[in-house]
Amino acid sequence: MIVHNFPPSPKAADQLRYYLRMYADTGMCRRKLPDDQVALIVEVFRMLADPTRIQVLWALVGREMSVNELAEHIAKPAPSVSQHLAKLRMAHLVRTRRVGTTIFYTLENDHIGQLVTDAVFNAEHAGPGIPGHHRDSTELRELHPGTDAPADSSPRGGVGA
Questions:
Q1: Averaged pLDDT, 110-132
Q2: Residue 101 CA from chain centroid, whole number
């Protein structure tokens, strides 16, 4: 007799969602990509090949921010951030919403957030020790004193966790 723990724990549910995302289209990955699609993919990676744009996209995972908020968050001048946002917008990686004279930026879609998150997590694996996204809240507080670690201690407690 098979015994199932249902509902699964939050950690198990996160691991299952991650597994399903990672392996959902494995049959499709073997096909040859059309040249026009490859050109678009190259353009996306070209946009990601800039430290400021990575910081901007990472800051926008799961939230929207104005140019001034982004500039303060990543410690760059607002005009510079604005220029990077214009490039990201033309590449369809971010979108805007205007409220009065303020423009708010968000990621164009969840795939962009997942791409940036996976890039960050992959980079964490290249470094020494346990990657930050595998640490629980207590370990994160020790690593980053003075900041609030997320309440959810699961390794992949949502995009950007």
A1: 85
A2: 27
For residue 156, give the nearest of 9, 2, 4, 17 by alpha carbon: 17
Dihedral Cα 121, 94, 85, 123, nearest 10 deg: 10
Going from the N-terminus, what domains does the chain have, and what CATH number goes with each? Answer: 36-126 (1.10.10.10)
Model pTM score = 0.67
* Distance, CA of 66 to CA of 5 (rounded, Å): 44
Rounded mean pLDDT, 120-130: 82
Task: Give the contacts of 21 (CB within 8 A, at least 6 positions apart).
Answer: 114
Query: CA–CA separation, 141 vs 123, rounded Å?
Result: 20
Please give the Cα distance from 137 to 153 (Å, whole number).
5
User: 3-state secondary structure string, the chain?
Assistant: CCCCCCCCCHHHHHHHHHHHHHHCCCCHHHCCCCHHHHHHHHHHHHHHCCHHHHHHHHHHCCCCEEHHHHHHHHCCCHHHHHHHHHHHHHCCCEEEEEECCEEEEEECCHHHHHHHHHHHHHHHHHCCCCCHHHCCHHHHHHHCCCCCCCCCCCCCCCCCC
pLDDT the model gives residue 25: 61
CA distance 76 to 87: 16
Residue carrying structure tokens 């960050």: 120
